[in-house]
Amino acid sequence: MFGDKRRGPRGTAPQVDTLIGSGVVLRGDIAFRGCLYIEGRVHGAITAEDEDAVLTIATHGLVEGEVRAPTVVVSGQLRGDVHADTRVEMTPSARVEGNVHYRVVEMAAGATLSGRLIHTAAVAALTGPSGQAEGAAAPVEAEAETAAG
């Protein structure tokens, strides 16, 4: 619970700036900076406002909504899409229902994902400056890349 905001070596955790305790139910969107640690329930979108932000969903935590943060660590339940610019970690107790957009992903044995893993660098390489796929072959290549990992 104490240390650098960025994930350290395995077994160490980032500093917690904001804690949503196990008895808390939040309904609404959240914007945060630093490290947000969720042990309770959040019904709404969660968005990080800085490039070093870390979102951690604890073993008994639940998030229902889209998540956007550089680093996302899931040990509990997440029902919604994840967009992580840096890293997504799913521990053995993670239960994710939604698509995971990632640059680097770590999925431990036992974690479950009901959705797609979408590598953001592969998608960016297949889309033009407008964000739209270039040419007719792009969607097929994107599907093949996603399936490969």
From TrEMBL:
Origin superkingdom: Bacteria
Pfam family, one: Bactofilin
Record-given protein name: Polymer-forming cytoskeletal protein
Membership in a protein family: Belongs to the bactofilin family.
Species assigned in the record: Coralloluteibacterium thermophilum
Region named Disordered: 130-149
Biased amino acid composition, Low complexity: 133-149
